[in-house]
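> Could you send the Clavaminate synthase-like protein prediction when you get a chance?

Sure thing. Input:
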Amino acid sequence: MPVPVPELGQYNYVQETKENLDWADLVTLDFSKYGTPEGKKELAEELIKAVRDYGFFYVKNFNITQERVNRQFSLGKQFYELPLEEKLKYVPDGLDNGAFNGYVPAGRRILDPASGLRDHTEIYNIPKFDGFFTHNHPDVIQNHLDEIKEFASLHKEVLDPLHILLAIALELPEDYFTNIHRYERKSEDHFRYMKYSKYTPEENEKLGRLWGGGHTDLGSWTLLFRQPVAALQIKLPKTGEWKWVKPQDGTLTVNACDALSFLTGGYVKSTIHRVAAPPKDQEHVDRLGILYFSRPNNDVKLATVAESPLLQREGYTQNEFEKSGNPVPTMEGKTHSFYISWQWTFAKQKWQRTKNVARGDVSHKTAQILPGFREKVYD
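Output:
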């Protein structure tokens, strides 16, 4: 007999904060303008300003209904309601060495060394449906896998347009970035349900009201679906100020990431961001996030795009690897030199997943990820 599919129920969003926070004034790309050459040109100009000035921006009218988004939040909620022993069955082999698809339990990081208080962050990553990955999930996910796969149409609805707009802005053929982000080719794209369980008011004060330190993402773009618990903050590239990112109705929040910064010699900013404790009128609730992480195909070499007239004119011709004289890695695959292999994705994932690191450990925050690239302290 077929397995019955449980009802998802209604997902109830918390009320937005009434506190007057210092919000970032981000650009909003309206994809309803995408259908004409003039609209594309205007959006390309807005996009390049966004990724140069902020690294973060909003997208609206991206052809995915709020009902479909709500169902994903309901799925994420049901997953996190599973008993811990059930979720632990899906921890990936090799988690400590950079594996990331599956369940990552909370408590791997020490946020307050004095008291031993650990993080409350849980992650469930689902790899893309390109035929290269196995899909073994708990029933609540497995029973809705076709729906989750369909939801990944956001690659077509959001990522392909962003790649075309970026190519236009950099004076490249329109298909330049779509060709290196083909959905059907192997890459480490993944979909994520992410839960930040609440801390007590006393614990939040002990943490300096900061849940996660400043960092950048390793791929091309990160897509964050709107949920109203304010916690995301970005560090403005030009001023170094920290600003809150306001949850905007009917939008995706998007940020540019490390791979695009490498490919453009630093012209596109991989923006530093962090997760703060929510304002006091929201700190009594958990924060559930729905995200998609886009990455170049695994065989793409992370060298500066030499074909861009704009990058050549502006002098953005070398990234960190090229300036250092070290081998330029591919996104996941291997670059061989003296029988040493470099893998960008898994090297950085291994660093991110390091267990029992205490907040403030500078040796971790400035660790060498690959020859030619060290992390930086982002406070």
